[in-house]
Amino acid sequence: MSEMQIKPIALYNTLTRQKAPFAPIDPHHVRMYVCGPTVYDLAHIGNARPVIVFDVLFRLLRLVYGETHVTYARNITDVDDKINARAAERFKDLAPTAAIAKLTQETTAQFHADIAALGVLSPTVEPRATGHIAEMVVLCDALIAKGHAYVAEDHVLFDTTSMADYGKLANRSLDEMEAGARVDVAPYKKGAMDFVLWKPSTAEQPGWPSPAGIKKHGRPGWHIECSAMAEKHLGQVFDIHGGGVDLVFPHHENEIAQSRCAHGTPTMANVWMHNGFLQVEGEKMSKSLGNFYAINDLLTTDVFGQQAWHGRVLRFAMLSTHYRQPIDWTVDRLTQAKHTLQEFAELVHGVAGGGAPNPDVIGALSDDLNTPSAISILHGLAKSAKRGDGAKASELRTTLEFIGLYGGETAAELSLQQHANVDAVKVRALIADRLEARRAKDFKASDRIRDELAAMGVVLKDAKSPTTGEIVTTWEYKR
Ligand code: AMP
Ligand code: ZN
What we know:
alpha/beta; Rossmann fold; 4-stranded antiparallel beta sheet; 16 helices; 14 strands; 14% strand; binds adenosine monophosphate; binds zinc ion
């Protein structure tokens, strides 16, 4: 696609607390980093929000600057204490590093399958933390050499007092933060807000050769992972950095501290964008409240009102609230999203697309991703299409495809998939057993599990993940 002349994109920047016109550092190359999932379990519907929101921004940037002029890096955090614990529990006979590799490959493949159903494009690069350990060690050593970090009890810690404007993103001063810090600060920390860049590993934890001449093997802290991956793929200073609002402090504040102090730069990224939180039927989503939904649950099973939902419906529902607002995930919202998408699908079915997306929709998205306004413009197009305006029907199709809200589905396919009586947790466990059997080349066992699932009305489809090469199995209930 060629560069498109439209009104400039304006984005709200958490760092300046203002919406301002966006201008990339290199006018012909936009660079964006978004913090991706920690892959120890199925991604939940809250995790889907940044994935969908920044996918829309990626699509807009590609339209405006040209497809080959945007680099979007969305990482995979594949080393972390939650991952270590889960891997040790599941793969008792493997060494820690091999165990986390196995768990994270499997979880990443499932994540890819889940978000593909949500109409999400692959980012330009998807760096994994364990592929960038050497870069993290270099960053630790640079921070120590410049007096911004110190070694204590085999840890490397960032010295927050060494940075004059630490706390700028979170809009809090170091004094304020220190006053509010809890009393049980680790004894080896010089300052209460100092944070871990590197920590020692036991024999039961994955470990790599440490920086700063520390003899024990160790592993990185979470924040240093993103500083290293962003630098490797986007450079020391880049355009846009995104994630959920929960990451502003400490994760993003600490990424900024590490990157700026290691490189001696005044900024890490020019624009910092944060999506609001998702809650379910007015409550915080949590396992203990029983209202915790994996993306995969909503796509496949009879949770949340005894219905499964089409991925495009989930995407539409997510975009019906502005990304900076909190979003309440309700059955009503999903039902409404489904009806609207069904109406759109009927109007564009059999209509040729092919032109440019509607300029007013592009204008709304350019205004800090105003998706609610874009959706109301789509309704206007639908109205004209309903009156028999073929050009508007065609434009509606192109625009829906551009936002990722249409991929040729019929209204019937977008309808609820009734999955009463299928226990998705059991289905997933059987699928995992079958994959295990296939890996062990026990095809008898794998066929037996397939038959068992078929008897439950569950039909399997195997596909190879293009990114990891792992086999991913998706399922459908057919009765
Ligand atoms: P995590 O795997 O917890 O590091 O989260 C991955 C991404 O999902 C981060 O950008 C988080 O900010 C985002 N996220 C997690 N929970 C929610 C939620 N309930 N609503 C919106 N975003 C979320
Ligand atoms: Zn990050």
